[in-house]
């Protein structure tokens, strides 16, 4: 066991009488195996003089270092203290939030913190930090004032709670809530983040500015239904919290009491004041929202107008749908990602929850190499850490076997002419691939320097004018080997131009040849349909996209028809290599990982393409009249598009599409159950029978493989 | 101004995109990425009429992807073309065979006498100088003979050095102008228009529906 933080002079105040305060120690500790944190409080009365002395020493030591080993005696005490004299400990993973209430600057009251476990039934007492008596807080303050920078805006009032907060921040994602800035959520779920986020699009409550008095109660009354009810909509957790507040506020109609005030009597914050602050926080948040989000609301107005429904016929987007689609700021960070796994390294939340994070916020670059393995199906989502170790070994081994198949084969055993042609094509494409990014830029042995020393130049000279065709950059060599091995792995398909574009980002993120190969092989499961000899897979997608445009952007469709462009031929490249050429390298990584989630549809790339069309519909309709112009227009879009905005639009377009299909289905039902069918009612000529469109609602990937029939002629079939 | 459509065909990595960029932007990029689908570029040149007047010609150029697998898309691009540049790599023997296959296809599918086909051997810079002569895999005389038999225009170029590239387009422009000028003259007379006019000269559409998803 490791100690991370000790705060002496930490008191529990069971009553308002100061003499009855119980002294003790606030402790943050971690297990040694998996570093998971516990926070707890232990009563001074349980300690013997030896441990007390040792603990005080450790407290000071921890001001400078991040952890110290705990003695066996302490460990036993820590275990046995539970529940005695108010002592408690709780794993950080079981904590929902921590409230840090700073001391009053005038010194009227002490700072305190309250830990709220995820389990509602567990109520922990507030711990008051008597800073002046606490040696570690005093010492830290000294250090801070030595380095005091008057211009650093981050520096607030220092108190013991700040040290606790910083210690916890190292081990979990802590996020301050906007509604009550002293409350920090621990490893919040995406829904928590959405609800508590200040930039949220939670519908603005109609606050009446003329509310008399401004007492806590009236403000509370004014806001509770408009705001809390909305917040309550979102998650079970929040609604439980809110309904708890509402219930306790409701009885007798008098003073709303907070859950905690109920149980922990706290000498300064009476329940009424607490609630007033809380509701004030909510009110401020609402106002801040109105003030700062003018831009956002303009954006939302634009979106509903452009992507939205024909108001006379369809339903509008709900505020939640808008809210969810436009909030794309919560990236899956390393801390967050780690917090999602249990001790066995098994995912402890649903896959849907993880995918929600990735779909809406993306993956932080430093954990991509791990997360992508899950996203692409190399690691099963429900695997444990041990199982993954096993899987990696197997995969490395089988990669080697596949690779050896071409490395060590003899000329008699295969069609050398075909193979050499394949290798020739692969090498030509590898050499032309993404050479502007640093990893692949220099074609030299170390891949880092622009040109090599004189002896190498000599070699180049000998190789003659074709020397620039020799691949030397180690990463380019790996791309080549992966593609050659894939050629052996999927013999029917062969190498097709564009495949190099697909493997390149994977390799750049994973940077491990066998793993990059397996990522690629899994990615190709869904991409193979793009490379069939008869082009049937890509054509299916173009037809689907055309039908989507017909259904959702009928005006644009009509115009494209007039320009002979309704086959959307200009989208060919976008769909073939998933927008790889239209966006820059890092953007492509962000876009692909969203697609891989299959969050709404396994063919979300079509909605992204649709969003591009939608966004450019007006200029196209106004200015272009010919097939060539349209193609040229789309060629020139390269490098000019904002993928974030397009992703928001894609999501809204999907939702709209889904609603339209639902409406059609209901009509269908009606039509079959009633005898009289309304023939007069005009609806957009819908390709509603289309299997193409219906398939868009599925999250299962579409697999179409190249297959060679007996006589050797290629044929692609739908499996 | 006259406007002509031109399409580039030929095996992958023979240098189609490089030739177009040399012609349009006068640049060469060793690391240019492979083409997917097709790229569209345009450039104007001037040719001389019989009465020594300058005529501006605008080329609308479709640069296609070379790999066999994308062959079924090519008709989209060549179906309205006035000229086709069929490119091979003089250091790759097989690329000439691919070029011949393209010529066959154009003759069969387009079947228009007026379509100007220009066979181009690229990358001659690689076999310049006596010690590099062995890099050459296709003899110029061989390709030239083939071109003559088929009634194609022919030349060797280098997109890297720029050698011969402009001349190819110049020759195509001149040829197109010469074959079209009669037709143009009648039209201009008909319009009673004697100055510079914007005239599109599309080849009659072949009603070819071999496109991808049509
Ligand atoms: N030495 C030399 N290299 C050339 C020349 N033209 C092109 N290359 C090189 O050949 C490679 C392929 O050129 P591209 O222009 O991309 O070929 P492409 O025909 O457009 O190929 P696809 O788009 O795949 O059909 C590039 O790496 C060029 O650097 C040339 O005239 N001389
Ligand atoms: Mg090209």
From TrEMBL, chain A:
GO annotation, biological process: regulation of vacuole fusion, non-autophagic; vesicle-mediated transport
PANTHER family referenced in this protein's UniProt entry, alphabetically: SMALL G PROTEIN SIGNALING MODULATOR 2-RELATED, TBC1 DOMAIN FAMILY MEMBER GTPASE-ACTIVATING PROTEIN
Protein name listed in UniProt: Rab-GAP TBC domain-containing protein
Pfam family, one: RabGAP-TBC
Domain Rab-GAP TBC, residue spans: 362-599
Top-rank lineage group of the source organism: Eukaryota
Molecular function terms, GO-annotated: GTPase activator activity
Lineage: Eukaryota, Fungi, Dikarya, Ascomycota, Saccharomycotina
Single GO cellular component term: late endosome
Keywords for this protein: GTPase activation
From TrEMBL, chain B:
Domain of life: Eukaryota
Region (Disordered): 185-214
Keywords of this entry: Cell membrane, GTP-binding, Lipoprotein, Membrane, Nucleotide-binding, Prenylation, Protein transport, Transport
Location(s) in or outside the cell: Cell membrane
Topological category with respect to the lipid bilayer: Lipid-anchor
Claim: Transport is one of the keywords in the record: yes
InterPro entries registered for this protein in UniProt: P-loop_NTPase (IPR027417), Small_GTP-bd (IPR005225), Small_GTPase (IPR001806)
Pfam families for this protein: Ras (PF00071)
GO cellular component labels: cytosol; early endosome membrane; late endosome; plasma membrane
Any single biological process term in GO: late endosome to vacuole transport via multivesicular body sorting pathway
UniProt GO molecular function: GTP binding; GTPase activity
Polar residues bias: start-end ranges: 203-214
Similarity remark: Belongs to the small GTPase superfamily. Rab family.
NCBIfam families hit by this protein: small_GTP
The protein, known as: GTP-binding protein YPT52
Lineage start: Eukaryota, Fungi, Dikarya, Ascomycota, Saccharomycotina
Gene it is expressed from: KNAG0C01600
């Amino acid at each position: 066991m490791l100690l991370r933080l000790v705060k002496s002079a930490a008191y529990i105040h069971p009553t308002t009488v100061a003499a009855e305060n119980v002294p003790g120690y606030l402790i943050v500790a971690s297990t040694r195996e998996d570093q998971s944190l516990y926070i707890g409080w232990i009563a001074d009365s349980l300690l013997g003089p030896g441990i007390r002395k040792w603990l005080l020493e450790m407290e000071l030591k921890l001001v400078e270092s991040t952890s110290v080993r705990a003695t066996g005696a302490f460990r036993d005490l820590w275990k046995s203290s539970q529940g005695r004299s108010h002592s408690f400990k709780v794993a950080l993973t079981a904590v929902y939030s921590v409230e840090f209430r700073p001391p009053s600057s005038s010194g009227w009251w002490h700072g305190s913190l309250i830990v709220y476990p995820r389990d509602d039934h567990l109520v922990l007492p507030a711990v008051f930090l008597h800073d002046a008596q606490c040696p570690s807080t005093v010492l830290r303050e000294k250090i801070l004032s030595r380095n005091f920078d008057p211009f650093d805006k981050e520096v607030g009032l220092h108190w013991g709670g700040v040290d606790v907060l910083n210690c916890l921040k190292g081990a979990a994602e802590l996020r301050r809530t906007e509604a009550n800035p002293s409350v920090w959520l621990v490893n919040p779920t995406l829904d928590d983040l959405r609800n508590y986020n200040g930039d949220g699009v939670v519908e603005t409550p109609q606050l009446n500015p003329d509310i008399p008095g401004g007492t806590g109660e009236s403000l509370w009354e004014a806001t509770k239904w408009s705001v809390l009810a909305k917040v309550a909509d979102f998650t079970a957790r929040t609604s439980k919290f809110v309904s708890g507040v509402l219930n306790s506020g409701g009885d007798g109609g008098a003073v709303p009491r907070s859950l905690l005030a109920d149980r922990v009597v706290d000498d300064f914050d009476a329940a009424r004041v607490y609630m007033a602050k809380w509701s004030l926080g909510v009110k401020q948040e609402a106002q801040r929202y109105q003030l700062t989000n003018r831009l956002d609301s303009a954006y939302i107005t634009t979106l509903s107008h452009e992507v939205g429904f024909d108001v006379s016929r369809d339903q509008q987007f709900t505020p939640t749908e808008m809210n969810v689609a436009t909030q794309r700021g919560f990236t899956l960070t390393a801390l967050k990602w780690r917090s999602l796994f249990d001790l066995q390294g098994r995912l402890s939340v649903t896959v849907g929850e993880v995918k929600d994070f990735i779909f809406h916020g993306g993956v932080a670059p430093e954990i991509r190499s791990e997360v992508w393995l899950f996203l692409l199906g190399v690691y099963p989502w429900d695997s444990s850490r041990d199982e993954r170790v096993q899987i990696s070994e197997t995969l490395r081994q089988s990669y080697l076997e596949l690779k050896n198949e071409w490395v060590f084969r003899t000329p008699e055993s295969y069609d050398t002419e075909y193979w050499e042609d394949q290798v020739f094509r692969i090498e030509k494409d590898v050499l032309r691939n993404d050479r502007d990014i640093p990893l692949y830029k220099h074609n030299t042995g170390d891949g880092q320097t622009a040109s090599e020393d004189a002896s190498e130049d000599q070699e180049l000279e000998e190789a003659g004018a074709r020397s620039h065709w020799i691949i030397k950059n180690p990463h380019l060599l790996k791309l080549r080997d992966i593609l050659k091995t894939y050629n052996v792995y999927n013999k029917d398909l062969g190498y097709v131009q564009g495949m190099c574009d697909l493997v390149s980002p994977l390799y750049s993120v994973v940077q491990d040849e066998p793993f990059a190969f397996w990522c690629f092989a899994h990615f190709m499961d869904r991409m193979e349909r793009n490379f069939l000899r008869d082009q049937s897979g890509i054509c299916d997608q173009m037809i689907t996209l055309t039908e989507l445009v017909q259904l959702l952007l009928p005006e644009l469709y009509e115009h494209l028809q007039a320009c002979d462009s309704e086959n959307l031929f200009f989208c060919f490249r976008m769909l073939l290599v998933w927008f790889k050429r239209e966006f820059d390298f890092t953007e492509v990584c962000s876009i692909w990982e969203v697609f891989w989630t299959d969050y709404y549809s396994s063919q979300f790339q079509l909605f992204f393409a649709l969003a591009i069309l939608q966004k450019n519909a007006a200029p196209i309709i106004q200015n272009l009249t010919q097939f060539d112009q349209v193609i040229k227009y789309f060629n020139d879009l390269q490098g000019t598009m904002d993928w974030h905005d397009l992703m928001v639009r894609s999501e809204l377009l999907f939702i709209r599409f889904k609603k339209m299909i639902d409406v059609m289905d209901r009509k269908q039902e009606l039509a079959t159950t009633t005898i009289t069918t309304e023939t007069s009612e005009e609806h957009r000529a819908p390709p509603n029978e289309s299997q193409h469109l219906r398939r868009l609602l599925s999250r299962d990937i579409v697999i179409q493989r190249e297959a060679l029939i007996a006589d050797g002629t290629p044929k692609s079939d739908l499996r | 101004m006259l406007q002509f459509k031109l399409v580039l065909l030929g095996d992958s990595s023979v240098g189609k995109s490089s030739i177009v960029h040399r012609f349009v932007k006068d640049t060469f990029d060793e690391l240019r990425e492979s083409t997917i689908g097709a790229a569209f570029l345009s450039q104007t040149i001037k040719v001389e009429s019989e009465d020594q007047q300058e005529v501006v010609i605008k080329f609308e150029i479709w640069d296609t992807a070379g790999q066999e697998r994308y062959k079924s898309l090519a008709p989209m691009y060549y179906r309205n073309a006035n000229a086709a540049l069929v490119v091979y790599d003089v250091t790759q023997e097989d690329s000439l065979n691919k070029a011949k296959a393209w010529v066959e296809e154009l003759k069969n599918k387009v079947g228009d006498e007026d379509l100007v086909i220009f066979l181009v051997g690229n990358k001659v810079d690689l076999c310049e100088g006596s010690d590099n002569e062995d890099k050459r895999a296709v003899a110029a005389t061989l390709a030239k003979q083939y071109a003559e038999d088929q009634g194609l225009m022919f030349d060797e170029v280098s997109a890297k050095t720029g050698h011969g590239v402009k001349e190819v387009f110049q020759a195509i422009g001149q040829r197109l102008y010469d074959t079209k000028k009669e037709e143009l003259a009648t039209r201009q007379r008909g319009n009673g228009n004697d100055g510079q006019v914007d005239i599109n000269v599309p080849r009659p559409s072949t009603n070819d529906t071999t496109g991808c998803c049509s």
